[in-house]
């Protein structure tokens, strides 16, 4: 039996929606194996630092990088070819419930196992202090990585979802927070995200000076969530060189078809945004505020002005870690029931962003959740609701757009309306039926 409050939305008319395809400028890398081989073969720092028989800790984080298992296996293979004895260290701060077993499990969900990588995974939450910042903050690093003969940093360079700074997500943050484990992440986040951009650089400088970091391997992705480039950065100048690649990564981001085309982020008003899934493989915040304009902190701004955001579910890979779904206005009861407080609260208490652990209004199903958003979006034209539906905030090649948006989209470069507008379809349980192209 439906709750009594459902009657308040059951007669809300939903706009007709048409399937739309966006085309983004994009460069694809060759195969992950070839991209890694060419990057490492062409980097003098690789030949200068790798010695036969040395143990090398390779960092792998909790994000769903494009071609992650293939990239890890390729890097391990290149290290072995040069005589090194590599092992993987999960470098993900407090993720995985801040336990060694949990972090190994996160890697497995991302497709990285000892079998897939071809080397051991050594997971521990134990850290050692390698210095202190001027403010007294302890700088800590994973003990197993510290004791290895060398450390190779591996991560994707990408705009962060909670702060703006010269260095955001990438090798610097992996070194400072990822390898700092729970204690390091706690220390860095304790002052709030207004300071994170500064602290990750200061902590990285301490670790580069005191730890055996050999070099970093970074990936850049294109707007289609595909591998675009693999680069090797030596420790000398790593912090500064990463900034150039961050600018490229920002320009590569996908976006909603709103606002001026010459800006990296969408802008302007939207009545309703429907997001099928949130998940850690899409963004550290579950859904990227660079896309939806709904940050959880004051340290980031920009993006569209969306009146109501609906989220329908959380991915299986996230195992209930729907951290950040608080930035939605309405969710489904299905998502509410999958929300894992253990994982979400651990993330939020570590980052200090408690609002990210909140839950929005939960409606019984997809239909009533969308109806609730349409009813309350404060549109002055209820007969012409501007609404976009996306699968998640990472994959934006295909989307559904309401009839009210079609005239503008038809004249927008890089956008093709590939289907007629039609009524949204739901099954007997109120779940959306309209599929996504494969």
How would you describe this protein?
- With 438 residues, this protein is α/β, with parallel strands linked by helices.
- The chain has two domains: 4-24 and 254-417, no CATH class; 32-252, LarA, N-terminal domain (Rossmann fold, 3-Layer(aba) Sandwich).
- Helix content is 31%, strand content 21%.
- The chain has 15 helices and 15 strands.
- The protein has an eight-stranded mixed beta sheet. Strands 3-2-6-7-8 form a five-stranded mixed beta sheet, sandwiched between helices.
- The protein is globular and about 70 Å long.
- 52% of the residues are buried.
- Residues 28-161 form the LarA-like N-terminal domain.
- This is LarA-like N-terminal domain-containing protein.
- It holds the Pfam family Lar_N.
- One of its GO terms (molecular function) is lactate racemase activity.
- InterPro entries: LarA-like_N (IPR018657).
């Amino acid at each position: 039996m439906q709750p009594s409050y459902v009657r308040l939305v059951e007669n809300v008319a939903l706009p007709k929606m048409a399937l739309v395809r966006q085309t983004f400028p994009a460069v694809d890398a060759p195969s992950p194996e070839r991209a890694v081989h060419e990057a490492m073969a062409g980097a003098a720092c690789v030949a200068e630092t790798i010695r036969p028989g040395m143990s090398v800790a390779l960092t792998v984080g909790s994000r769903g990088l494009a071609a992650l298992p293939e990239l890890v296996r390729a890097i391990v293979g290149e290290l072995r070819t040069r005589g090194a004895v590599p092992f993987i260290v999960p470098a993900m701060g407090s993720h995985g419930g801040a336990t060694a077993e949990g972090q190994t499990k996160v890697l497995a969900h991302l497709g990285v196992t000892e079998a897939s990588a071809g080397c051991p995974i050594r997971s521990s939450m134990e850290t050692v202090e390698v210095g202190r910042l001027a403010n007294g903050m302890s700088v800590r690093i994973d003990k197993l990585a510290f004791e290895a003969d060398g450390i190779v940093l591996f991560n994707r360079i990408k705009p962060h979802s909670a702060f703006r700074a010269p260095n955001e997500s990438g090798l610097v943050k992996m070194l400072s927070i990822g390898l700092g484990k729970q204690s390091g992440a706690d220390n860095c986040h304790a002052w709030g995200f207004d300071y994170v951009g500064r602290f990750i650089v200061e902590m990285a400088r301490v670790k580069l000076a005191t730890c055996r970091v050999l070099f970093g391997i970074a990936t850049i992705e294109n707007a289609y969530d595909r591998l675009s480039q693999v680069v090797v950065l030596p420790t000398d100048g790593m912090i500064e060189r990463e900034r150039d690649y961050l600018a490229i990564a920002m320009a590569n981001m996908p976006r909603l078809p709103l606002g001026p085309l010459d800006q990296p982020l969408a802008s302007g008003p939207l009545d309703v945004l429907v997001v099928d899934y949130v998940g850690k493989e899409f963004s550290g915040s579950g859904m990227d505020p660079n896309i939806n304009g709904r940050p959880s902190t004051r340290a980031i701004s920009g993006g569209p002005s969306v009146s109501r955001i609906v989220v329908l579910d959380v991915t299986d890979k996230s195992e209930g870690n729907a951290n950040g779904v608080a930035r939605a206005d309405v969710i489904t009861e299905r998502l509410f029931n999958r929300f894992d407080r253990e994982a979400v609260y651990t993330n939020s208490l570590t980052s200090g962003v408690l609002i990210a652990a909140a839950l929005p209004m939960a409606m019984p199903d997809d239909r009533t959740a969308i109806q609730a958003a349409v009813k309350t979006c404060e549109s002055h034209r209820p007969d012409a609701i501007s609404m976009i539906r996306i699968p998640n905030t990472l994959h934006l090649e295909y989307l559904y757009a309401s009839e009210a948006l079609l005239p503008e989209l038809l004249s927008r470069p890089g956008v093709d309306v590939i289907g007629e507008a039609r009524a949204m379809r739901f099954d007997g349980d109120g779940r959306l039926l309209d599929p996504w192209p494969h």
